[in-house]
Design brief:
With about 290 residues, the chain is of the alpha+beta class. Helix content is about 25%, strand content about 20%. It contains 8 helices and 10 strands. It has a 4-stranded antiparallel β-sheet, covered by helices on one side. It has a 4-stranded antiparallel β-sheet with strand order 2-3-4-8. The longest helix is centred in the C-terminal third of the chain and has 20 residues. The protein is elongated, with a radius of gyration of 21 Å. The protein starts with a helix and ends in a 23-residue tail after the last strand. It binds a DNA duplex (14 and 14 nucleotides) through loops.
DNA sequence: GGGATTGTTTAAAT
DNA sequence: GATTTAAACAATCC
């Protein structure tokens, strides 16, 4: 749910609220939210000042004045909220970072998949997940983008979702950018003409920028650091709209599994390159 | 209670 | 051996 635009929105809001504030206390309600354990987490954060808040991929990163970084991965249902100290605590609030000016930063996660850790630069750089992330889509030019995808035989959607190929894209923005570029989600990347790859690059950047401008998407329960919902769900063309009309050609939208995830697309606007044309013809061996 | 939800890892297949 | 696919995993909701 929180993908690049949502995490970016949280980071920007959080930056205004907590930069230059000092961490006075840490309260742990669910130890599973901090894999390093409470002792290490407290040692590395108590008395430290938050110098900057930023995003990389879907990671929210708070840089501390001891060179360490507090890194939050929201996964499915994670939220980070700033509230007046002691307020608004519910059973899904797993971690409370108490600041020195009367506010708490809450880590709230209904499904407990998210996590928070504090890493020093050396550890951060060698964290396998971080070290293997692909480039930021908004900082990638068309030629580089083409090199990431052009020769690969995997389905285009699974590549978009692969954080090692390109970072920060999830199911929403994969479906929306494929629709805008007129590409079927199960098309093999290598079968796409270069112009289509360029189109995808442009549309992906476009949809990400629009979503950031709208404060992210809140089709379910996403909220930013102030508890405010985003507006981009109003602009979805295909995501979550199976059975409804394509906003472009009015064809009924369909859904298929691609890379193990539901993928909604328009059969009219997103036609397959070759395979689809002659039905189910298939070369080579075929088991009965 | 089965199925869907998510991003990521790991195992298996090509 | 590299690339790709599928299944597993976490917890919860409907």
């Amino acid at each position: 749910m929180p993908e690049l635009p949502e995490v970016e929105t949280i980071a920007r809001g959080l930056s205004d609220l907590i930069t230059k504030q000092c961490i006075r206390d840490v309260l742990v309600n669910w130890p599973g939210s901090i894999p390093q354990g409470e002792k290490v987490f407290r040692e590395r954060s108590l008395g430290r000042t938050i110098q900057a808040v930023r995003r990389r991929a879907k990671l929210l990163i708070l840089d501390l004045d001891n060179t360490a970084s507090l890194i939050v991965h929201l996964r499915m249902t994670g939220k980070v909220l700033v509230v007046p100290s002691g307020q608004c605590r519910d059973k899904h609030t797993h971690l409370v970072v108490r600041l020195d000016r009367g506010e708490d930063v809450l880590f709230n996660d209904q499904r407990k998949f998210g996590s928070c850790r504090i890493l020093f630069p050396e550890e951060f750089a060698h964290w396998p997940f971080y070290a293997t992330l692909g480039p930021e889509p908004l900082e990638t030019g068309p030629e580089e983008f083409n090199q990431l995808f052009g020769h690969r035989r995997a389905g285009i959607k699974s590549l978009l979702l692969n954080q090692r190929i390109i970072a920060g894209v999830g199911n929403i923005y994969a479906d929306e950018s494929l629709f805008r570029a007129g590409i079927h989600p199960r098309e093999r990347a290598a079968d796409l003409p270069t112009e289509k790859i360029f189109a995808l690059h442009q549309k992906l950047q476009e949809v990400l920028r629009e979503a950031i401008g709208a404060g992210g998407s809140s089709f379910s329960d996403y909220v930013n650091a102030l508890g405010k919902r985003g507006d981009f769900q109003e602009s979805f063309s295909v995501y979550g709209r199976k059975g409804l009309a394509c906003p472009c050609c009015r064809t009924v939208l369909e859904a298929e599994k691609a890379a193990g995830r539901t993928s909604t697309f328009c059969p009219g606007c997103q036609k397959r390159n070759r395979q689809g044309a002659s039905g189910t013809r298939r070369a080579g061996k075929q088991k009965i």
